[in-house]
Specification:
single chain, alpha/beta, Rossmann fold, 9-stranded mixed sheet, Alpha/beta fold hydrolase, hydrolase
Length: about 270
């Protein structure tokens, strides 16, 4: 590995939120110095640093970017969710509007790109809806902007697999407390009150560049998710990836990397 590239070890940031102390694991990947702003990777509803696997590091190394990967509260090696704590319907708003600003301030991150996947993509959109002037732009892969039957059906199916098969043991490879990660995500998405969750009106406040990407075969949502973003933010660039499900960084990593790199490097 050349001297200007690095994969630092996992570190921890201690931040205050809701009168409690959170430890968030994070890791720098890619170039030590880059002509481009830092890219912050925001993981999916069952994700973590470890579950991204090598994608952020490989992507950043290939294109000379500096990346920051971290695990949200309740995920990976970050502070786990207390067993009886239920995420509120507004949990993504809280992550975007309350936790991210404190985390970025703690690390001294200014004008980053956000690269969000699934719930992380929704959080990126919500952050941009309030803090567009503080961003270089956002990339959202398989975002959610409203709740569809297809999404609920797949999340309900995931619950059945978690309870009856080996999903818990598989997730234990990526989370210190797999129950914290799984039930925090699954319970709120299947809460009847969450059915009316919708962030379409929030999108109209976004003024930074937006790239919205989705797999044609996404099992967790229809293409109305990204087309809906473009209707609210007409300048949004849309990419539909063929032969691709809900995780473009796994199903079509090369195509995804090329699209994202081109989008970012042409906005310097």
């Amino acid at each position: 590995m050349s001297s200007d590239m690095h994969n630092s070890g996992v570190q921890f940031a201690d931040i205050q939120w809701r009168n409690s102390q959170l430890r968030l694991e994070y890791q720098w990947v890619g170039a030590r110095r880059s002509e481009h702003p830092v890219i912050v990777f925001l993981h999916e509803g069952l994700g973590s640093i470890a579950l991204w696997k090598d994608f952020p590091a490989s992507f950043c190394r290939a294109y000379g970017f500096t990346g920051l990967v971290f695990s949200r509260y309740g995920y990976g090696q970050s502070t786990p969710r207390i067993a009886e704590e239920k995420w509120p319907v507004s949990f993504m708003h809280e992550q975007a509007h309350q936790v991210l600003p404190v985390f970025f301030s703690h690390l001294g991150i200014a004008r980053p790109w956000l690269f969000g996947h699934s719930d992380g993509a929704s959080i990126a959109l919500l952050y941009a809806s309030r803090f567009s002037q503080q961003l270089s732009g956002i990339v959202v892969a398989a975002p959610h902007i409203f709740v569809e039957d297809k999404t609920i059906d797949s999340i309900r199916a995931a619950r059945e697999v978690y309870v009856t098969q080996d999903l818990r043991s598989r997730l234990a490879r990526y989370h210190a407390d797999p129950d914290s990660a799984f039930w925090g995500w699954n319970d709120v998405w299947l809460d009847p009150a969450f059915r009316s969750w919708n962030i379409e009106n929030d999108l109209t406040a976004i003024t930074c560049p937006v790239l919205a990407i989705q797999g044609k075969d996404d099992e967790y949502g229809t293409l109305e998710q990204i087309y809906g973003i473009q209707r609210k933010i007409p300048a949004t660039q849309i990419v539909v990836l063929p032969q691709c499900g809900h995780s473009p960084h796994r199903d079509q990593s090369e195509a995804l990397s090329q699209e994202v790199a081109h989008f970012i490097t042409h906005r310097v």
